[in-house]
């Protein structure tokens, strides 16, 4: 007999609730009236907080969801006739229903990845299209940190990708839906963000909040100059201008206070490591490599995966290799991990007994 499932599932950090500190911030911002569309004290304050976070003046466009944030970021970077170079496993290519291509009328040029990561060789290969009037011109390199496979680029790897892309006149976009988890792995606090994004030469990034304890709160951060008024207009055009923006800003203020955004992500990462340790004792090498962030990708027999998924839902990830994704979040507890591992042990014992 199965025990009751964990209180928190391992399907996605998107499935987690809102952090209590964020809920408190929303409630506090709910008192009285404030002008709409970012003309409020919370938005002005959070813009200053992002300057402090990055250690330089940046331009901030608060947004509402991940797909729209990526579209807005790319919209502010693209020139006519340009395309976007990304990996086959990037979110903009694989999980956004062709929204960037439909909304922006641009072409995504996807290239095979290794563990979800872009290679320098791929940039060189795609750059051969530059100057050829018959091909869309690669104008933007988009990378994801952390990747859809839970891997991370090192600071040096991002720096090299930026250097090569810039040498061809491309700008670099970083999809940071899970940037908090990636920065947390460095263990350098906010200095890690500056090393990873500012010092490497990233031009524009999507800064994620929703997957890290916030609700419908994302941001486009421009680290290099761009026409600010154009960005404001484009945000309206792609439906990312929230009228009651103070509630988005208030959430980021709560998350950025005392580096809570990193503390929440560090906890999620640590829970994934605990999950992997326990799973390795049950599955051995099939548990996959140790997680870099808050996800792991075990290989499971189909019958085991089906039973487990019915008990405590998680996503299939690669049907060809029978890999699945288990993901932790800011609110995952050790008790959740232990209960889930108890279920894994029961299922695997049953499968081995029948075999």
Topology:
Layout lengths: L19 H10 L11 H14 L4 E5 L2 H12 L4 E6 L3 H4 L4 H6 L2 E5 L8 H7 L10 E8 L10 H13 L3 E6 L2 H8 L3 H9 L5 E5 L9 E5 L5 H10 L8 H11 L3 H24 L11 E2 L5 H10 L3 E4 L4 E5 L6 H21 L1
Parallel strand pairs: 2-3, 2-4, 4-5, 5-6
Antiparallel strand pairs: 1-7, 6-7, 8-10, 9-10
What's the end-to-end separation, in Å?
19 Å
Helix content: 40-55%
Element string (H = helix, E = strand): HHEHEHHEHEHEHHEEHHHEHEEH
CATH H-tier superfamily of the largest domain: Type I PLP-dependent aspartate aminotransferase-like (Major domain)
Q: Show unreliable segments.
A: none
Question: Which CATH architecture of the largest domain?
Answer: 3-Layer(aba) Sandwich
Q: How is this structure best summarized?
A:
By secondary structure, the protein is α/β, with parallel strands linked by helices.
How would you characterize the overall build of this protein?
- The protein is globular and about 65 Å long.
- The protein is of the alpha/beta class and 355 residues long.
- The model has no long low-confidence stretch (mean pLDDT 96).
- The two termini are 19 Å apart.
- The chain has a seven-stranded mixed sheet with strand order 1-7-6-5-4-2-3, with helices on both faces.
Search tags:
2 domains; Aspartate Aminotransferase, domain 1; alpha/beta; 355 residues; three-stranded antiparallel beta sheet; 14% strand
């Amino acid at each position: 007999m199965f025990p009751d499932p964990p209180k928190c599932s391992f399907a996605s950090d998107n499935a987690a609730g809102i952090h209590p500190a964020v809920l408190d911030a929303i409630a506090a911002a709910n008192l009285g009236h404030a002008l709409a569309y970012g003309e409020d004290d919370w938005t002005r304050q959070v813009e200053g907080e992002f300057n402090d976070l990055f250690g330089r003046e940046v331009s901030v466009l608060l947004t509402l969801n991940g797909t729209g944030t990526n579209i807005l970021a790319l919209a502010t970077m693209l020139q006519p006739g340009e395309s976007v170079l990304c990996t086959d496993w990037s979110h903009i290519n694989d999980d956004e229903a062709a929204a960037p291509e439909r909304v922006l009328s641009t072409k995504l040029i996807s290239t095979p990845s290794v563990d979800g990561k872009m290679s320098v060789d791929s940039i060189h290969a795609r750059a051969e299209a530059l100057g050829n009037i018959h091909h869309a011109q690669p104008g933007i390199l988009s990378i994801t940190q952390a990747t859809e496979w839970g891997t991370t680029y090192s600071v040096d790897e991002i720096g090299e990708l930026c250097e090569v892309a810039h040498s061809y006149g491309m700008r670099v976009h970083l999809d940071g839906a899970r940037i908090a988890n990636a920065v947390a792995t460095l263990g350098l606090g906010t200095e890690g963000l500056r090393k990873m994004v500012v010092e490497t030469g990233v031009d524009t990034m999507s800064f994620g909040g929703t997957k890290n304890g916030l609700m419908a709160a994302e941001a486009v951060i421009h680290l290099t100059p761009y026409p600010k008024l154009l960005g404001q207009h484009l945000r309206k055009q792609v439906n990312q201008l929230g009228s009651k923006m103070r509630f988005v800003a208030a959430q980021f203020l709560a998350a950025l206070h005392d580096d809570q955004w990193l503390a929440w992500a560090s906890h999620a990462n640590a829970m994934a490591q605990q999950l992997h340790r326990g799973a390795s004792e049950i599955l051995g090498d099939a548990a996959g490599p140790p997680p870099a962030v808050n996800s792991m990708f075990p290989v499971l027999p189909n019958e085991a995966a089906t039973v487990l998924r019915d008990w405590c839902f998680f996503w299939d990830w690669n049907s060809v290799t029978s890999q699945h994704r288990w993901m932790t979040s800011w609110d995952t507890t050790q008790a959740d991990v232990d209960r889930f591992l108890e279920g894994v042990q029961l299922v695997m014992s049953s499968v081995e007994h029948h075999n």
